[in-house]
Amino acid sequence: MDDQQLLRYSRHILLDEIDIEGQTRLLQGHALVIGAGGLGSPAAMYLASAGVGHITLVDHDTVDLTNLQRQIMHTTARVGQPKVASGREALQQINPGVQVTALAERVDGERLQALVAAADVVLDCSDNFATRHAVNRACVAAGVPLVSGAAIRFDGQVSVFDPRQDASPCYACLFPPEREFEEVQCSTMGVFSPLVGIIGTMQAAEAIKLVAGIGRSLAGRLLILDAREMEWTSIGIGRDRHCPVCAQRHG
What residues does 123 pair with on adjacent strands? Predict the structure, then answer.
């Protein structure tokens, strides 16, 4: 690290758990963020400020006026721009030393698999089950840890699914793909603005811990937030030995 980096990241370096070694791992790290909206905004901004060296943003959507109530990476002046272009501008203003790859596209199949395999950690900040399951399958196949978040109305949840750990469940263990879950969108149900900030920031914290190699992740635990009462519930989740996605990987 040069003098400017030592100064910029000094408050991380002062933490014994991170120090120079952990911050160096962050600078060399690559985070893939799926979704540049309510969750992706705070998540990506904290990844950039923390010095994660390469951030890939994936989102096919454009900035809309209705986004600005909660998607803090975007501004009124950038309404109509691709979200990933707006996000790249915001992240580079925060930290010009971070490389930001902006992909304005829907990704699936081999394309998604290649992007996941190139990352050290994946943050699922999407808003639908199809994308979440596709990202989970890619993470399990590539052996890359997944930080998953969701938020709707006043309810949020966050967890880590780490296929490197034999005991860790995957997203499909918790939400089996063959089971029908109600698909709810904030465009019809609404969402409490700070809620996505809370969950997205926690996703960033888990991702930073994973890349830096510190602390205990949320693997095997699901945190659920009721923001109306500001009450957290922690639920232990186990691996499904018959899971159609991860059972074969773990044998």
Answer: 33, 147
